[in-house]
Fold this protein.
Amino acid sequence: MEARILKRERLSQLIDAFIEQYEVIAPTDDSSYGIIGSASEMHLTKAKPAKSPKDFLFPQREILIQYVLSGEQVALADPPVPAPVDRILFGTRPCDAAAFPVIDQVFGWDEVDAAYFQRRERTVVVSIACDEPCETCFCTSLGGSPAGIEGSDLLLTPLREGYHVQIITARGQALVEQYERLFQESDRVRNRERAALEDTWRDAIAETVDLAGIEGADFESPVWETLAQACVDCGICTFLCPTCHCFDIQDEGDPNRGERVRVWDACTFYEYTRTHAGQPRPTHHRRYRQRIMHKFRYYPENLGKVLCVGCGRCIQYCPVQIDLRAVLEAVKG
Amino acid sequence: MRSSEETETLRVSETLRVSDPWEPRIFAFLCNWCSYVGADLAGTSRLVYPATVRIIRLPCTGRVDPVFILRSFQRGADGVLVSGCHPGDCHYSKGNFYARRRMRMFRALLEFTGIDPRRVQMSWVSASEGQKWAQVVTEVTQELIALGPLRA
Amino acid sequence: MQAITENIRREARRLLQEEAVDVVIGYELGWNGVQPVPVFVAQPADVDKLIFNERCTHNLAKYLVGREGYLTSRFRPSEETVRVGLVAHPAVMRTIVALLREYQFDRADLTILGIVDGTPVGLEPDVEVGRVEVDSAKEEQIRAQIEELDRVSLAERGEWWRKQFSKCIRCYACRQVCPFCYCEQCVADENQPQWIDRSPSLWNNMAWNLIRTYHLTGRCTGCGECDRVCPVDIPLRLINSRMIAEVSLAFNFVAGTDPDAKPALAAFQPDDTAEFVR
């Protein structure tokens, strides 16, 4: 595959050049990605932001319809969506990028989420490889890698000198060609350096989980009773997860004017499956079981992919440090 | 900045038109037994006072929950007035005592988080104090005019 | 710290062997062998999992109350009374005092393995398993940050808090780790009517955070867990500490220090002052 080299000192230049033509989204602090106005607003560290970039394809708050009443008439209006903009999502990690093809499946399933795919079409993903995987990362157990290419259009890998720029898709190719003046050609030596580094980083992943047998996870097993004892039923694991995609639809307004919005929801919340007929998952054991079964059994059965990319945020940010890796080991069939 | 598509519409009831020149909108929570009657007396006495209040009747100021106040701001109020019986005269004996403590703490919370606490006012107006009601609304209106609209 | 760990294990073993409790809730080392996590020990053979160190900050009283609380859950058969042994560091001791004052459970159902720091709590642990120092450095830090906020104008402060609350993702971790957020139906989840809208717009987030803080006023015992768990680093301890100070100043009441004192907002004095009232 084709590759380029980007000198380290050229990175800011490249980003600022992107900003002139595109809406550029990059990590802005330790907790999130955001739209940046200049390269100096970027916050690139060894760790990835707490929030995944899924917000930019699947917004946490998305207006579906607006309504206005005047007299007896109800007027519905499409939301004031800004004109579709070409965007570059910069600085994603391979795990976050790999999540996009996974959730593409559900957003394109029985009902196609047109707005999601519109954003997806217009977003070029330029990822950066992880030269220091966190203690909680386990992407390799899900078929990924600290320098994996799944879901990205371009992948920047830090070499001893400069970044190796892997061109993965035609979109990535087009982007590189647009800014060709900032890149240099890569060569066999540097390509080999990239491959060798990737091997080192793969080995640096602290803990791996062998997922063979996970689809045999037993719904009735008593082990579920103790796995989630400490769980407090918040939404951190769900909201930070790059593949979680459950949502709720709410109407927010007053009797005269308002909007119907789609918002993120979490199966860990007590209210999630609460219906007028009752609550089939009243305890957090049942909700946690649902979460794991959905991600590692039902989603793969229905849509062909495991609903996890091994980013490890759920482990890192869980208020009681529940370790998904240990859970998976315990429930494997 | 969050996702480029986040927008929040200002939801203001169409029946509450923005006046010109601007006048503050005050949502007033009045207790049924004292202040509501006092306000009614101001009306039957043909007292003239600013038409800035929109009155909501409650059994007692003890019923006032800060969610009402925040919702009022969200729905277009520039200020909120809570008015009830004088301490010791509460129809339910104690409701206004609790309200007094609650409003004090809620205003302190607003002040710390940068919402001017003068947008949340309180008064004791009895059933026979029509004059006082008119006076209170006049003063609160003036204070809010000085503060300006909640949303610029 | 090692002595405290030994004491906890010894007492837990005794309590479980004598069947004085059904479960001991404490801390064990988590997945990385460094960070403690809550653990629920029901067998004497498992007591060696229990540890205690300065990283043990989780407010374990959370597991006593609420919909699935060990002492309050209605999902257990009513004949079954669960008796709990709880490892309680100083903030947890204060929490227990305040929860008892809110009639959340019977003192008799709880065996407290207390770690004290000398500040008055008005509650004796059933067993004192250790003593620690008050973390005055942290308290000083909070005080300094609040003072800094007080120095700037109202508008600047408002701007700063709006920036903080715009980060909120409504994960409700702050609520879920808090022992005082034990309502079976939180006001934020009420939709008949819906006072706090669900979506994470700035105004909705402000409503959520302000109301949670207000509902904790006069109740929060300052464990700091809400601040620790927030995934987007909203400095919740500043706002809750501020309200602890406001309540103390206005009503001479500090939650969790006196088991006989009525919570400040559930009480009144006929001559309470409120200068803002016309």
User: Anything to note?
Assistant: Residues 49 and 139 of chain B are 10 Å apart (CA to CA). The longest helix of chain B spans residues 95-112. The domain at 26-147 of chain B is CATH 3.40.50 (Rossmann fold).
